[in-house]
Amino acid sequence: MRKIISFMHISLDGFVAGPNGEMDWIKVDEEIFDHVGKRISEGDTALYGRVTYEMMQNYWPAAGDKPEASKHDIEHSKWYNNVQKIVLSKTMKDEDLINTTIISDNLSERINEIKQQAGADILLFGSPAATHSLIQQNLIDGYWLFVNPIILGQGIPLFTGIKEKIKLKLLTTRQFASGVTELNYIVSSE
């Protein structure tokens, strides 16, 4: 069965964005881009909330075609254009969207159907509201977190509305030169 892995940058105090959605505190560099690029290139499905999807859709389809495109932009643009995309949204319609499926109702049932299909892990990128919905229905199987060396004090938390404990097993860690630490967990039944 396929797993849903939440990929998220997070502050040391557990926020994924500032109070107004600010993400200017997130540290990314070539070392992180290369590491993440290798992992996501193995994936064939990306899961987004509507806001994150619209942000991605406004940039990535043509990012690799620009004259000033970086290696990362070219690689990620190619991946983004080919990957199957799933968007959680109550307002979007999926007519004329290439490689994109919209889920607007029966979230648990629809996600579990997709998890039963052949393919690689499903990577949930950013999307705090979508992540919260999936956490509340126990649909996330792992967390791939990039802990940034900052304490925000307030903002949009990653973990909210959790009604029971979620046990995790640490798979890997990695320290980057920027001070960002990767923590890779799977949900554990132990």
Automatic annotation (TrEMBL):
A GO molecular function held by the record: 5-amino-6-(5-phosphoribosylamino)uracil reductase activity
GO-annotated biological processes: riboflavin biosynthetic process
Pfam families according to UniProt: RibD_C
Protein name: Dihydrofolate reductase
Ranges for domain Bacterial bifunctional deaminase-reductase C-terminal: 2-180
Annotated InterPro entries: DHFR-like_dom_sf (IPR024072), RibDG_C (IPR002734), Riboflavin_Biosynth_HTPR (IPR050765)
